[in-house]
Amino acid sequence: MARGSNKIRVVVGTIAVGLILPLGLLLWWLAAATDDSAVIPTIAEVIDVLAHPFRDPPNLDSASLATGTIVSILRVLVGFAIAAILAVPLGVGIGRSTFLRDLTRPLVSFMTVVSPVAWLPLAIIAFGFASIGSVIYGDDSWRADILDQLALAVILVITTGAFFPIVLNASAGARNVRAAHVEAVRVLGGSGRQVFLKVVLPSSMPSIATGLRIGGGVAWRVMVAAEFFPGTRSGLGHMILTAQQQTEYQYAVAAIIVIAAMGLAIDGLFALIEHRVSRWRREER
User: How far is CA 33 from CA 26, 30, 41, 42, in A?
Assistant: First the structure.
């Protein structure tokens, strides 16, 4: 009886999930058709924006959807890469060192409860509107338009958002390495370097991968909010803001769809990595 009830629940759940998209599209169509103020864009208008991603919006102070997507991805890639390079070794060190863990606990606890976006005004004060392009090319940064749009303040906020989830998960993974495995390598004459490379790092990789997955998601969400602030000239978040200001909501909805699709792609990529590096742990169980 219980098995039959579980099958029924699975079937009902599958049907319900399958109905979400068509019901959502139906409600959207009805809302747009009955909206006299034209605030709600039609499905056709949004599809037109998505179908012409390289077309510059005629009424917006924003680059095309494709350019905005590229700039947003680059901002996240740079910020996330910096966070991962710094956070993984620090997290492993915190996990293996009681002294380092006690030393950094207050700062980590404080930073994890503060929204990364809250640091953007301070980042703008510190860096102004400087960008990677201005650092490399100085006053000639206009020659590299894409690099000139990678504002240091925005990248710092993205880095901050991704940094602490990676640190926390890397430290948890390194701290939970089985002592018996470490002692076995040492008894066999293994050096500290061999213990780290053969035991600590492989055992920590599933937790590190989880941290990278969480950090990547946080970086992507923080990017959207950071692009609302002054100093950005393109990006998906910037397109949403300018579309709202000019009541060109088809561009805002199109940007939201791209944000959702890219977010799912990023999460799926890290989920695949997490699955691959965690295979040995499942087999061990």
Answer: 11, 5, 9, 8
Residue partners of 57: CB distance under 8 A and separation at least 6:
64, 239, 243, 248, 251
What are 256's two structure tokens? 């939201």
pLDDT tens sequence across 96-123: 888 888 888 888 888 888 888 888 888 8
| Tokens found for residue 242 | 């300018």
Fold of 42-284: MetI-like fold (1.10.3720)
CA–CA separation, 145 and 137 (whole Å): 11
List, in sequence order, every residue forming a beta bridge with 131; answer none if it has no partner.
151
Question: 109-118 — which CB contacts under 8 Å span 24+ positions?
Answer: 111/160, 111/164, 112/164, 112/168, 116/157, 116/158, 116/160, 116/161, 116/218, 116/222, 117/157, 117/222, 117/225, 117/226
**151 phi, psi to nearest 5 deg:** -65, 135
Radius of gyration of the chain from Cα atoms?
Answer: 23
Residue type, 83: A
| Domain positions in the chain | 1-40, 42-284
Contact assessment for residue 72 and residue 158, using Cβ atoms and an 8 Å cutoff: no
Q: pLDDT, tens digit, for every residue of 133-178?
A: 888 877 666 566 778 888 888 899 999 999 999 999 999 888 887 7
Cα-flanking dihedrals φ and ψ of residue 269, to 5°? -65, -45
DSSP 8-class letter at 259 = H
Please report the DSSP string for 158-214 in residue order: HHHHHHHHHHHHHHHHHHTS-HHHHHHHHHTT--HHHHIIIIIHHHHHHHHHHHHHH
Q: What is the pTM of this model?
A: 0.83
Residue at token pair 């034209």 = 38
Give dist(CA 58, CA 230) in Å, integer: 21
205/282 Cα distance (integer angstroms): 13
